[in-house]
Amino acid sequence: MKNHTVFITGGLGFIASRLTKKLLSMNYKVVSVDNFLTGSIDNIDEFKDDPNYSFIRGDANNYNTLYNIFYTFKPDYVFHYAAYVGVLRTLENPLQVLKDIDGFKHILELSKDFNVKRILFSSSSEVYGEPVELPQNEHTTPLNSKLPYAVVKNVGEVFIKTYQSEFGLDYTIFRFFNTYGPHQSQDFVISKFIDLALKNKPITIYGDGQQTRTFCFVDDNLNATVAAMLSDESRNEIYNIGSSTEMTVLELAKLIIKLTNSASEIKHLDPLKEGDMTRRQPSNQKMVDELLGGKQLVALEDGLMQTIKWFKERNE
Length: 316
Hints:
single chain, alpha/beta, seven-stranded parallel beta sheet, two-stranded parallel ribbon, globular
């Protein structure tokens, strides 16, 4: 398996770039594509000259771009991570989100035609919408979210399952809950809070801050997703990828202020009109048992301290 080629879409993104680094360290050949819309070229700087790595600037929704990559590199595995992300961004640009459906069609058709062993798809916790039960598990997806982003991720899951049924194209679907760590952009809650805290600027929270989330350190995410690629048992399975430990957004802000010794104040903004779910708590037992071999996840404070250290060094 070591000489196999892995194709990663959205390769300049936080998780995709960390995945690239990990796979290169395992002697895989990796090719990635990104259109620079939300990713950062800085994320690949440390391995851009690796002889086993190729980066293509292009749109992962464009058939010709994808065809040329499949034809040239003939990937064995495809991680489809490219997406138009961010609650506010996707609410303001719903038509941009819908373009991702074209990407699903092209990726799946080319994966079928070029005999890809498996496609691994980054879905989202957003597919659960407002929880009808907690913890949220892979077998009870209520599909009650009206957010364009969530609807499109659901469409992607259906496309992938259909191609497996019709053509035998194997898949693994990851429903990502909040993942954080070094290299994450400031569009996301932990990185945003850390950046503000280190600058002693006010930390803003939508509403009263009692909405809950869980936070998974990036190393746990990568260990799980790479294990899934290597495991026959994970073929045609869906996994929640995240921590099961809930905390409120307000508690998170206070913890980050404490860990950074910040003088930041917390300011409350009006609640978002839509998209800010009241609770998030996955059942991650399947991930822990089947992909991580029962290994305990990185504790939040430990992961935050590593992330804070990276932000400090970057800002020096």
